[in-house]
Amino acid sequence: xxxxxxxxxxxxxxxxxxxxxxxxxxxxxxxxxxxxxxxxxxxxxxxxxxxxxxxxxxxxxxxxxxx
Length: 67
Description:
elongated, mainly alpha
């Protein structure tokens, strides 16, 4: 009966979990992060701002056209 086999199987899983935790923890722990469900969560917009008008801006437009 080989008793070391279950422990040997746990070691790679444990190492994979440690590597994943080391990779993802800094990304999760940062409080200032992009929130895809509400991207403008802490953004202060000017009074006349609207997403619809912002999406109408194109590269060819002059500054006067944009403002």
